[in-house]
Amino acid sequence: MTEVRRAGAGDAAVLARLLWDFNTEFETEVDDVDVLEARFARILELPAVLAVLAEDGPDPVGFALVTLRPAIWFDGPVSQLDELYVVPALRDRGIGTRVLDLCTALAREQGSPEMHINVDEVDVDTRRFYERHGWVNVEDGTDYRMLCYVGPTG
Question: 28 is in which domain, residue-wise?
Answer without folding.
Answer: 2-119
